[in-house]
Amino acid sequence: MDAGTIRRSRGRKLTVAEYSKHNFIEKALKQRKFENRFRELHPVHPGDDGSSVKRGEEKLINFCSNDYLGLSQHPRLRDRAQTYLNKYGNGATASRLISGSLDIHHRLEEKIADFIGTESALLFNSGFQANTTLIPTITDRHSLILADKKCHNSLLQGSLLSRADFKRFHHNDTDHLQELLEDAESETYSRVLIITESVFSMDGDRAPLKKISQLADDYQTLFFVDDAHAVGVFGENGRGLASDIPNIDIQLGTCGKAFGVFGAYVGCSSQMKDFLINFCPGFIYTTALPPAVLGSLEASVSLIPKLDEDRKKLHENIQYLKKELHKSGFNTGDSTTQIIPIIIGSEQKALELSRWLEKKGFLASAIRPPTVPKNLSRIRITVTTTHNRDHINQLLEAIKSWKNA
Ligand SMILES: *Cc1c(COP(=O)(O)O)cnc(C)c1O
């Protein structure tokens, strides 16, 4: 190597003295801090009531967990996890196609398919992992992917990995989607895939699934719905929003949210399941979910359909919190779900409110760019069945006191 110049930065040659291989890290982190976007991990310890966590000695009511039904602390899940652990051991020992396909994986998949009303279900190790691997499996570089502008990062990553033509339609805008579908008619794509979430993770609004399903049918496209935040909370018996919609080829549910545990599944036809088992790298080349997780999940699927009373209370609390926030002049966007953004604007202000709430005993995280667009920084509140009216009233008091401070 030439001792004088060794690497390039923005077209300029750098000398040995100038170059440091970790320079890019230092620069990126500095920039993040400068923009008030620097992220850090803060350890908490879960309280056994499901509604609170401890940070050091401080008890905080948790208003940002995805544990919508409070199942993360449910005794029935713990018991079943222990039973499976004792009976089946710590690990699945291999991927599903080698020796890791335990009878309890198969039983759980049948149970999940029954619950969501699909012909088949297939387990994955997480929702993120599933999305990044499913999308490239069902498309190729001659395909077109049309995804809602506000889709989760995992759907974006999957779409980019696929090397398909990738376009995003304006959020929840079926006219724009139809325009893009019309344009695609004059191309020779191998296939077209429409992707949306049912409940959007940062705004808590819902997709017009029926209309999109109609378009998927009219234009004979594949249709992928990420139901991560709807399962357990919406639909008959809490089975989510995708189950009532025709023409869906893959509906994804995660087991880390309302299920209270970890993992993910897809609901699909038996033919699609066979295809994924044969061609989906993120299913084929990874160790199967471990027995304890399967035990908890088995208990979750049994419990969720029985929690109608809890869901009713949850929806009442959601309506109440939203109404009170509006009365105090807060903007919650288009939220119609348990995810309630309080849109503040600047990164700085959103952080300020989050810190204020923490001082008052509430955990509610600030969501900033790049997760949400610039000037739409927010506090993202999630309501769960572990919250009672008192928790919500106390939270409202704390938010109002910030506004008036
Ligand atoms: C949380 C989430 C995922 C990822 O699921 P994990 O199981 O947590 O990896 C995928 N899609 C959406 C829309 C999500 O909100």
Description:
The structure is a single chain. It is globular, with a radius of gyration of 23 Å. The strands form four sheets. Strands 6-12-11-10-9-7-8 form a seven-stranded mixed beta sheet, with helices on both faces. The protein has 405 residues and is α/β, with parallel strands linked by helices. It contains 14 helices and 16 strands. Helix 4 (103-116) runs parallel beside helix 11, helix 5 (127-138) runs parallel beside helix 6 and helix 12 packs parallel to helix 14 (389-404). The protein has helices at residues 23-34, 75-88, 96-100, 103-116, 127-138, 153-162, 174-184, 209-218, 270-279, 281-284, 291-303, 308-327, 347-359, 389-404; strands at residues 5-9, 12-15, 45-46, 52-55, 58-62, 120-124, 144-148, 165-169, 192-197, 222-226, 250-254, 264-268, 339-345, 362-363, 366-367, 377-382. Helices cover 40% and strands 18% of the residues. It binds pyridoxal-5'-phosphate (PLP).
Count of individual beta strands: 16
Distinct helical segment count: 14
Q: What sort of overall outline do the alpha carbons produce when their principal axes are compared?
A: globular
Oligomerization: single chain
Query: For the report, how would you describe the main beta sheet?
Result: 7 strands, mixed
What percent of the residues sit in helical stretches (DSSP H or I)?
40-55%
Distinct small-molecule ligands in the complex: pyridoxal-5'-phosphate
- Order of secondary-structure elements: EEHEEEHHHEHEHEHEHEEEHHHHEHEEEH
Radius of gyration: 23 Å
Strand content: 15-25%
Tell me the distance between the termini: 62 Å
Mean pLDDT across the residues is: 95
Return residue spans where pLDDT drops below 50 for at least 5 consecutive residues.
none
